[in-house]
Amino acid sequence: MAERLEPTLVFARGERDKYASKGRFQSVVINGAIGLQVIAGALTTGVAAATTGRSTSIGVSILGGLSTVLASYLAKARGSGEPEYSQLRARELDTFIREVEAWTMDYGHLTGKDYDERINMYRQRFEQIIRTEGEDSSTTMTAQNTHSNVTTKGGEKV
After folding, report:
1. Rounded-to-integer distance, Cα 79 and Cα 153, Å
2. Is 157 in a helix, a strand, or coil?
3. In this structure, are residues 96 and 12 in contact, taking their beta carbons and an 8 Å threshold?
4. How many domains is the chain partitioned into structurally?
5. What is the pLDDT along the chain (158 residues), one digit of tens a residue?
6. What's the DSSP call for residue 82?
7. Which structural domain, as residue segments, surrounds residue 114?
8. What is 113-144 written as a DSSP string?
9. Is the residue at 102 inside a domain?
10. Are 142 and 127 in contact (CB under 8 A)?
11. Is 156 helix (H, G, I), strand (E, B) or coil?
12. 2 in a domain, yes or no?
C-alpha cells in the first residue's frame, strides 16, 4: 500500500512547499508595500509643509501617485486573499501528509484490494485540497490518471 500512495505523497509535499513559499513571499511583499505607503504618505506631508510654489505641486503629485499605486496593489492583494490562502493550503497539505504517512506506517506493508477504497479516498482528498475555486476538474492532475501507471515489484499495475 505504501508504494501506491508514495507518488501522491511526493506530489503533496511539493505542493505544500510551493504554497508555503508563496505565502511567505506574499507576506513579505505586502508588508513591504504597507511600509512604502506609510513612507510615501509621510513624505507627501513633509514635502507639502516644507516647500512652496511649483516644486510643492510636483513633489506632492509624484508622491500622491506613488501612494495611489501602492494602495491599489494592497487592495488587490487583500481581495485575492493572499497570503492567507497559500498559508491555509500549506497547512491543509501538511495535515494530509501527516495522516497519509501515519496510515502507511500502520498499513503500508499490507497488500490486496481491501485497501483500495482508503487509497482512493486519500487521493480524492488530495485533489480537493489542491483544486482551486472555479478551476475545471479536467485541468487538475487527477489522482486516478497520475497513479494508474504505478506498478508493484511483481509487475502488477495498481
Report:
1. 49
2. strand
3. yes
4. 1
5. 788 899 999 999 999 999 999 999 999 999 999 999 999 888 888 888 888 888 788 888 888 899 899 999 999 988 888 899 999 999 999 999 999 999 999 988 888 888 889 999 999 999 999 886 545 444 344 444 444 444 444 444 44
6. T
7. 12-144
8. GGGHHHHHHHHHHHHHHHPPTT--GGGS--HH
9. yes
10. yes
11. coil
12. no
| Domain contains 24 | yes
18, 94 contact by CB (below 8 A):
no
Helix locations, the chain, DSSP H:
2-50, 54-80, 84-107, 116-130, 143-147
Amino acid at site 7 = P
Q: Which amino acid is at 129?
A: I
Report d(CA 63, CA 39) in Å as an integer: 10
Q: First and final CA of the chain: distance in angstroms?
A: 9
* Residue 51: strand, helix, or coil: coil
List the grid coordinates of 109. 506493508
**Euclidean distance between CA atoms 108 and 41, whole angstroms:** 59
pTM greater than 0.90 (yes/no):
no
Q: Is residue 3 situated within a structural domain?
A: no
What are the cell numbers at 121? 479516498
- Give dist(CA 11, CA 84) in Å, integer: 22
